[in-house]
Amino acid sequence: MTTKRALITGVTGQDGAYLSQLLLAKGYEVHGLLRRSASADVVNSRLTWLGIADKVILHDGNLTDLSGLIRTLTEVRPAEIYNLAAQSFVKSSWQQPLLTGTVTGLGAGNVLEATRIAAPEARFYQASSSEMYGLIQEPVQSEKTPFYPRSPYAVAKLYAHWMTVNYRESFGLHASSGILFNHESPLRGIEFVTRKITDGVARIKLGLQKEIALGNMDAKRDWGHARDYVKAMWLMLQQDKPDDYVVATGRTVSVRDFCTLAFGHVGLKMEDHVVIDPRYMRPAEVEVLLGNPAKAQKALGWVAETTLEQLVAEMVEADLARLKQHTHL
Ligand code: NAP
Ligand code: G4F
């Protein structure tokens, strides 16, 4: 049997790392698109953390460069393409709206176009987002819930989402979108609220810091574990027919609740350490997200395996270990 080949854009990000790990375990040859950086020592830090940096074959490239994408797909000839690359931080999308549109929106269009031209038989996955629901139109969001984006990021993701649907319907590509709700892990970027909290809790516990400054404590999210969510991505591409799926836990809690769990894990109280800083508020907020994963459960047999309590514990423990190692405490 020939080895299956996959190409992952965004391979250096949180999901790219966990998806690489999953695909390698399944025997795939894993290729990744690498955005060139002057800081070569940090680009593959997540793959290194998972112990797989030497197993992923990296190709220089950028989502904004269609010719490079066509060349890479022509060279690699992947059976599966996972488009995970994006300017993915919602808050930054107000500071860089056009960059976000160019990378997160048009960039996905470039990958679809490169796929159509150079690898039309490949199966394609688009990393869509629950942010597209924004100002929610139903209390629990499913594949049928209308979208109402509330940030330049969400607008860009909506463009990419509908391009994926249109390339499927117009050109017959096996193109699926996963509408993933928030998912976290020890490999989450430090700018996102969960990791900011678990890193802050670890620092406070170790006496390195006294406070964490946060924005809207009332925002509610449906938080799952990235390791579980990449399995849903893979499952979507194993189906005979392409389709769109919500991937979520079906439970939503506030930023305040997340803090309570994280501080509680190390025997501290969040009231003693959290301060509110208006700098972390957003021009428009997505107040609450709650997904209904019934379709993914039924059609893919996918379930969220990690509870929120397990996720928080894993993240806090990982940050404690990382800080102890770096500070020699
Ligand atoms: P992430 O950690 O921020 O990773 C983003 C990746 O995109 C990084 O590898 C980054 O490369 C790459 N990238 C950024 N701009 C690029 C460009 N111009 N060309 C090529 N690569 C570029 O994001 P994540 O949490 O893993 O999320 C993966 C995808 O799922 C993203 O599209 C995100 O928007 C979407 N999503 C995430 C969630 C979530 O809760 N995590 C939920 C729904 C959807 P560098 O390492 O060079 O920065
Ligand atoms: O962790 P966040 O920055 O994630 P957000 O905006 O929900 O976006 C993430 O999930 C999306 C899926 O729904 C992805 F598409 C997207 O790429 C990204 O992965 O913020 C979560 C909530 C927000 O309501 C924010 O206002 O936490 C609130 N928050 C409160 N204080 C904060 C802070 N967020 C951040 N980043 N930093 C704070 O200090």
TrEMBL record:
<dbReference type="InterPro" id="IPR036291">
    <property type="entry name" value="NAD(P)-bd_dom_sf"/>
</dbReference>
<comment type="similarity">
    <text>Belongs to the NAD(P)-dependent epimerase/dehydratase family. GDP-mannose 4,6-dehydratase subfamily.</text>
</comment>
<comment type="function">
    <text>Catalyzes the conversion of GDP-D-mannose to GDP-4-dehydro-6-deoxy-D-mannose.</text>
</comment>
<feature type="domain" description="NAD(P)-binding">
    <location>
        <begin position="7"/>
        <end position="315"/>
    </location>
</feature>
<keyword id="KW-0536">Nodulation</keyword>
<keyword id="KW-0456">Lyase</keyword>
<dbReference type="Pfam" id="PF16363">
    <property type="entry name" value="GDP_Man_Dehyd"/>
</dbReference>
<dbReference type="InterPro" id="IPR016040">
    <property type="entry name" value="NAD(P)-bd_dom"/>
</dbReference>
<dbReference type="InterPro" id="IPR006368">
    <property type="entry name" value="GDP_Man_deHydtase"/>
</dbReference>
<dbReference type="GO" id="GO:0008446">
    <property type="term" value="F:GDP-mannose 4,6-dehydratase activity"/>
</dbReference>
<dbReference type="GO" id="GO:0070401">
    <property type="term" value="F:NADP+ binding"/>
</dbReference>
<keyword id="KW-0521">NADP</keyword>
<dbReference type="GO" id="GO:0042351">
    <property type="term" value="P:'de novo' GDP-L-fucose biosynthetic process"/>
</dbReference>
<protein>
    <recommendedName>
        <fullName>GDP-mannose 4,6-dehydratase</fullName>
        <ecNumber>4.2.1.47</ecNumber>
    </recommendedName>
</protein>
